[in-house]
Amino acid sequence: xxxxxxxxxxxxxxxxxxxxxxxxxxxxxxxxxxxxxxxxxxxxxxxxxxxxxxxxxxxxxxxxxxxxxxxxxxxxxxxxxxxxxxxxxxxxxxxxxxxxxxxxxxxxxxxxxxxxxxxxxxxxxxxxxxxxxxxxxxxxxxxxxxxxxxxxxxxxxxxxxxxxxxxxxxxxxxxxxxxxxxxxxxxxxxxxxxxxxxxxxxxxxxxxxxxxxxxxxxxxxxxxxxxxxxxxxxxxxxxxxxxxxxxxxxxxxxxxxxxxxxxxxxxxxxxxxxxxxxxxxxxxxxxxxxxxxxxxxxxxxxxxxxxxxxxxxxxxxxxxxxxxxxxxxxxxxxxxxxxxxxxxxxxxxxxxxxxxxxxxxxxxxxxxxxxxxxxxxxxxxxxxxxxxxxxxxxxxxxxxxxxxxxxxxxxxx
Length: 413
Fold this sequence. Notes:
This protein is mainly α. The chain has helices spanning 2-9, 11-23, 29-32, 36-43, 47-68, 77-96, 101-130, 135-142, 144-160, 166-189, 206-209, 217-220, 224-245, 247-253, 258-262, 265-286, 297-308, 314-341, 346-373, 378-404.
């Protein structure tokens, strides 16, 4: 009864969150990588060269996002969302018509900046600001858009690639953004005016708007705990991005079919969804800090499984385990910064952390591709990464007591 009342009372806000996270899939690695073979063949690029090309575009988008992400603390989120939809549609048209490496790079940069970074950022900041006691639940529901995309888009693209060229598909993506998603966004925002979508703090508790209890970006950079957290926090997106980007090479080395592997994405999405929703409820009760030591463990087990066998049963099991860690990370990492550093400068702090996350993903595709080109097998890489995951979980467990202690922000000299 409580969940039904919560859901219907916040339906416009939650619907907007789902729309934003679903649309962000256009700039996600799992989506773009579905066209990797066609792009490499047309532009005559090796795995390593295309990976480096993609990594550089992602890195450039991360640097730009350090500046762009702060706008969520300063401007109306409705305007930012509308601008992002229009611009993202434009970059989809650009990649559809790319005929030189320079234009390809520009389109990848735009897709990564606006899809991978900004749309998801707007969704997270919105949920974190509009909901207080139910922040975890709101974030878990908003994240369903990404899970829906992961479930249906790979299968749809795999089918469309048998019917259309990759360029025609990207034109279709652009049309959908403008003709379908943008009008829905405008319609939903009519119901959200009472929520004060700019940086107004009308719906925040007094404790969350007292500057003395909220850290800004400069103060966060003086906190040792931040630097101890980041190696573990960045591990999951690095690994998942690297594997999904090189999924075509993975299925080739294991003698699987791409259709079979793509058919496992619904399991990944289902696992992500279940874990996202469950973690949202748990975070509202226990806090995200207490979950840090656990959320990476399924991914570690999945990497061991994927490295140890070429049997087809490993594909769905790995997707389930990877989805469990990805789902937990959706909520744990979205709420962690609020718990540690407050809500007042959340947009600025999260954009900095997300830029680091994007940097790690930009390195993943290029580094793993380079290692493949130099003869280091994907199996060897998976074993090494699984060991690293377990070490990070141990490190989180050791760090937890320090994170649970309340600390006031340091003074800025």
